Amino acid sequence: MLAAVIVTAGGFAFDAAAQTTGGAATRRTPPPASWPEKWIGTWEGQDRQGKIAPPGFRVVSPPEPDTMELIHRLSQPWALLRREATSFELEDVSQLCRPQGPLRANSDLNFQLAVSPEKITMIGGQGGGINAGGIRRIYLNRPQLKNLPLTHLGNWVGHWEGDTLVVDGIGFNEKSWLTRDRHRHTEALHMTERWRLVANDEWLEKTITVDDRFALTAPYTVKWYHKRLPDDTPHPEGVCLDEPGARRAWLKLYRQYERDYEEERRGVGSGAKPAGSR
User: Fold this and answer.
1) E strands within 28-117?
2) Of 60, 178, 182, 259, which is most buried by a Cβ count within 10 Å?
3) How far apart (Å, rounded) are the C-alpha atoms in residues 259 and 248?
């Protein structure tokens, strides 16, 4: 059973659909012929204003700012209060060299797809790259596992429905955000993505449905497009915390840690008397 409602924010239309936990019945088919050769390569990130799309196609919500307005309206009261209590500087995982979560990773920066018949690996874009573990692995040869460990980017499996790859993601921890503006989700976050090649296979279309029965009042769906880039596209390192301001902040935190450690070792500040005192 599928109930749907259209939500509009900032001039963009959003599909918000309440789905059963298991989703609609799947129409699994064999994979298209020679599909790995068509999908492998580097893809351009979706711009935040939603202007990147092939002729005749339309982005349904750019990553921001309109999605933020939608999610703000769909967030449950406790989630809005949790957002207000969230410190951007101290809790944003990207500030800590950690993966930014499934909705912020691989969105508005370039990414690579490494493809085999049994697995797709997304590398790069926002999410920390290889050094911070910002890699999504989509398994095509098994269903979702039980008792999954919770991670920043979750666990993903996929199956084919015609020329569309249907990707299912669960197993997320609560450390990442739904938007850059601190909107929260829970461990019940469930994402479904429908990928297909369009415009002579030069564009990757991703239709993303986000559901969290504990944090949102209804699911929502967005649609992005990623253009295929030349094979010789350079890939900058994107070293985490490599900016002067970030290094200074890290050095300040480390020195405070050293002071706290030394005080704890000597018993200062813990209620215990320093060694040698009476």
Assistant:
1) 41-43, 111-116
2) 178
3) 17
Here the tokens at position 109 are 């920066």
Q: Residue 125: pLDDT band by 50, 70, 90 thresholds?
A: low
The pLDDT of residue 275 is above 50: no
In the chain, the percentage of residues whose pLDDT exceeds 90 is 39
Query: Under DSSP, is residue 135 helix (H, G, I), strand (E, B) or coil?
Result: strand
CA 108 to chain centre: 11
Two structure tokens written together for 182: 């601190």
Sheet arrangement for strand 12-19 = 2-9, 12-19, 220-227, 203-211, 190-198, 164-170, 155-161, 135-139, 119-124, 111-116, 41-43
Residue by residue, DSSP assigns 168-215 as: EEE-B-SSSBSSTT--B--TT-EEEEEEEEETTTTEEEEEEEEE-TTT
Q: Using DSSP, state whether 84 is helix, strand or coil.
A: helix
Nearest 5°: phi and psi at 37? Answer: -65, -30
Phi-psi region of 249 (alpha: psi -120 to 50; beta: other; left: phi over 0): alpha
For residue 114, the number of C-alpha atoms closer than 13 Å in the C-beta half-sphere is 7
Please state the length of the chain.
278
Q: Is a pLDDT exceeding 90 seen at residue 140? A: yes
Entry pTM: 0.76
Nearest CA to 244 among 252, 256, 255, 234? Answer: 252
For residue 48, what pLDDT is reported? Answer: 60
Closest to 121 measured CA to CA, from 107, 108, 106: 106
Token pair of 128, please? 């920390």
Report d(CA 214, CA 211) in Å as an integer: 9
Which token pair is 176? 């990442």
- Split at pLDDT 50, 70, 90, the class of 68 is confident
